[in-house]
Amino acid sequence: MPAPNSRDTTLKKSSVSPLFFILGSIIVIIAALLYISWQGTASARLHDFAHMLMGTEVTLRLHSDNRREAEQAGQAAFEEMARVEALLSRTVDDSDVERVNRRAGSGPVTVSPETVTVLRAALEYAQLSGGAFDPTVAPLLDLWGFPGGDKRVPEPAEIETLLPLVDFNLVELDEQSGTVFLPAAGISIDLGAIAKGYNVDRGLAVLSAAGVKHAFLNAGGDIGLLGTRPDGSPWRIGIGHPREPGQVIGVLPLSGDIAVVTSGDYERFFEEGGRSYHHILDPSTGYPSRLLAGVTIVAPTAMEADALSTAVFVLGPARGMELVEDLPGVEAVLITPELKVTVSSGLKDIFEPVR
Ligand code: FAD
Ligand code: MG
User: Fold this and answer.
1) How many Å lie between the centroid of ligand 2 and the Cα of residue 280?
2) CA 320 from chain center: how many Å?
3) Which parts of 129-267 fold into alpha helices (H)?
4) Other C-beta atoms within 10 Å of 137: how many?
5) Which residues is 110 bridged to in the sheet?
6) Residue from 89, 96, 128, 303 to probe ligand 1 pocket by mutation (most atoms less than 8 Å from CB)
7) CA 124 / ligand 1 centre spacing (Å)
8) Which tens digits make up the pLDDT trace of 172-199?
9) Alpha-carbon torsion (231, 233, 234, 238), positive or negative
10) How far apart are CA 119 and CA 319, in angstroms?
């Protein structure tokens, strides 16, 4: 009914709309300028650091308003990671792992509580994966020349001789006394498939304690995240293409305190007789595992993700994905040598394939 009022309103609207339009435009422009300047400031507050540790380049990007605080936090994180490397590397003289290996067949060695923690986790993942992940694979690695030795394809008889020494059940870990004993000469342990992840967790813990809220720490494919990107958007993790160096096969947008770890056959390998041989060995055969070309694991901690990336790599696509789907909070992207990509249930909606 109210025609007059309606007309009034219409008249009023048409008389003020240019003003609204101008005011609205000004607000939009100011908001855009503020957003651009905030973005600029946010990226100006990103600080990048890099160091060689554990035989690989470790890169760190963190967000802080204060350059000095950022540098202090970054330095503290790298110092922590260097400390852990000195404890767990098997090539550093007098590290816990080097001492345990040196005393194989002679007697138990007292190690630090941290070494107990990482070794216990390694033995648990060995059990969980039915020995696909096995820290006693070290004698075989030495035979093949991984990671830093003279690389060659061994004779089958050489591998056969060493296989009885590769069995995680042989490791005598006494958590009460904090000792480790390898009961026969020739047995040795290598934590290369789990300690890098543990070290990323340590680096992030130090950053977090320093008040850092946004960080991206990458130790040669073992990535740990703190929070989101500074603008609130997820970090975008590229998954490397196993056969096209420098290209990505997919992207995972992820945020939160979470780890993303990749194991592949394309980073550390050598070629002989026209065939390539990489560093992830199947402990049951003594040869590089060839069921997968790349495994990316998403998990709450980098230690967990690291151990599982190696375990799943050796288990292959079927048994590997079965294990992943059984573990709460763990997700995976698997790439076969034929470049078939399989994504676990929890990543299906967010994985962005490239091409
Ligand atoms: P992952 O799949 O996570 O691990 C593969 C590595 O685990 C192999 O290189 C081997 O060491 C071991 N492995 C292979 N098969 C199995 C298996 N079935 N089960 C369990 N483990 C297996 N590299 C150097 O070249 N120089 C160094 O000085 C050096 N120092 C290091 C110190 C520490 C504390 C650590 C943790 C690693 C160090 N490395 C060093 C090793 C190097 O960085 C490795 O290449 C890396 O740890 C392997 O990680 P990845 O992510 O490539 O593969
Ligand atoms: Mg690993």
Assistant:
1) 9
2) 17
3) 138-144, 156-162, 195-209
4) 29
5) 179
6) 89
7) 18
8) 999 999 999 999 999 999 999 999 999 9
9) negative
10) 24
Phi/psi of residue 120, each to 5°? -60, -45
Unique residue bearing structure tokens 């690989």: 56
Q: Which ligand has the nearest atom to the CA of 304?
A: 2
What tens digit of pLDDT does each residue of 305-345 get? Answer: 999 999 999 999 999 999 999 999 999 999 999 999 999 99
Cα–Cα distance, 55 to 163 (Å, whole number): 26
CA 149 to ligand 2 center in whole angstroms: 20
Residues contacting ligand 1 via CB (< 6 Å): 54-56, 85, 88-89, 91, 133-135, 137, 141, 146-148, 190-193, 195-196, 220-222, 263, 267-268, 279-281, 283, 306, 309-310, 314
Distance in Å, CA 291 to ligand 1 centroid: 19
Q: How confident is the model at residue 355 (pLDDT cuts 50, 70, 90)?
A: confident
CB-based contact 58:217 (threshold 8 Å):
yes
For 13, the 3-state DSSP assignment is: helix
Bridge partners of 258, per DSSP, are 225
Strand bridging mode 294-299 / 275-278? unpaired
Give, as one character, the DSSP assignment of residue 339: -
With contact defined as beta carbons under 8 Å apart, do 242 and 335 qualify?
Answer: yes
